[in-house]
Predict the structure of Nodulation protein L.
Amino acid sequence: MKENINMRTKSEFEKMRNSEYANTSDREIHKSLTEGKRLVNEFNQTYCNGPLYREALEELIPNIPASSAICPPFYCDHGHGVIVGENVFINMNCTFLDGAYIRIGDNTLIAPNVQIYTPIHPKDAEARRESIEAALPVTIGNDCWIGGGVVICPGVIIGDRVIVGAGSVVTKDIPDDSIYAGVPAKSIKKE
């Protein structure tokens, strides 16, 4: 039997990004969180289209297109886990916990106070006492409108051309061309 000399153990950060339980007190994760908080603080000292705004935004959210904008204040864990498409507008006071990737498609509008969560914790109470958690990615398609105060739970995929009504809690995937609202969010109309 051949031994694979390229096999190595995944880092805790890699586990987190791959939806596996990871030790959140790990040095690499802690460093990323600390740097993320520094960049969030720096970004939140700016205002939309102010002189330092774009530079601070691009440092916080690498590769954000010039056609996209996020209004401060904005909160996230890492920043580099948020992937934003073209012509996206994210209004003020949104919170994105990006332990796993949060992908937002082109031409999507996100209203104020939207919360997108990727972290999950163990169901077992004793296991929750440990510093472990996993994270499930969230995807929002193209041409969506996410209403004010919406909460999007870990692992949710929202299709293209979807509207989610204000105050909704999205716990399950939403298909293309739908309008969802409520707690939990349910279909109220298919376009």
Residues 27-43 form the longest helix (17 residues). The two ends are 57 Å apart (CA to CA).
